[in-house]
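User: Fold this; tokens only.

Assistant: Input:
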Amino acid sequence: MTGGHRTAAHCIPERVRADLAAAHGGTMALYVMDLDGGCLRLLAGDEARVPGEIPTRIGVGPEIPPESYDALAAALRGAVPGCGWAPLALADRALGAVVRVEGGAPGLDVAAADAALALEIAGGYTDVAHAARRHTHPQAAAEMQQNLLPPRIARVNGGRLAAGVLPGYEVAGDFIDHADNPDGVWLAVADAVGKETLAGALAAVAIGALRASRRSGEGLEEAVRAMSDAVASCGQGRPAFVTAVVALWEPATGRLRWMTAGHPRPLVLRAGGEVETLEGGVSRPLGLEDDPGRPAEDRLGPGDRLLLYSDGLVEQPDGRTGEPLGLDALHEALRASARATCAQLVRTLQDTVLDASRERLRDDVSLLALDVDR
């Protein structure tokens, strides 16, 4: 899309838009999803012809699952009547959408996929797309958190997963992580003590230790021990700890091993509809134990759903009653999600928290759901 001349990285979104207009005619615009997944924001286009933002709570963080494309189409056509569109699709999710004001055009979906790849690569060289996703100035720790997070929606060996962290602009003590490796699918949700910069620094150290161990071929126990040692080294006379649940699932056998360090226990929605709490593998928070213990073990079968989450999900007070949402409400929401995808579950739980809190969160809310293929 750059022809015979090199395009400056910060100009790539506008160049992509111009190339789409040249190839398909009409007035083109590019939208990306806001960090919190509640609004499409204009990345490239003429605000005299299209809105600068389009509210729609369909994102899992800044990504849109394919099952929400109908809702995406409705939001776009409500804001730009009669428009054509195509998702900026990348792997198992969309980063946003291409809009053609004058209606659809043949081949626009293929061109949009190429545009998504160009924008993703450009994101490593310029802040333009990152800036478009932000409607306000994030705290430094929150910005660091966003840079640590993996894709929120992914197809993995034997299943699908979705993950989310709220809010995207402040607090920043939580993190989620996942990796589809030869030894299995790694999953983690963690919550660092403190607020803002301290919490963000502890989270960065913990996730760095996890990834370093994983990428060096170490197993679950070694990785969790490395996380604990790394967090303890940050204390310098002050309490420093991270609660976490780290799991490793082997798709070929269904074996799930996990370690829970001062963190809410994992939940499983079985294919038959019952909700189970996974006990065992429990220790004190990372950084407070020389030996974080041993993993517990269970099985995930076809159609099962695993949910890892931080305590902010159940401890967030309801803005109307003052009471926390609670574990019973989470169990009920999980049972009610049996026909939904894992991405829809994550979005629904995030909406539940945002609506109850009137969007004034007391703490981070992180969750990661894994659906085992049937």
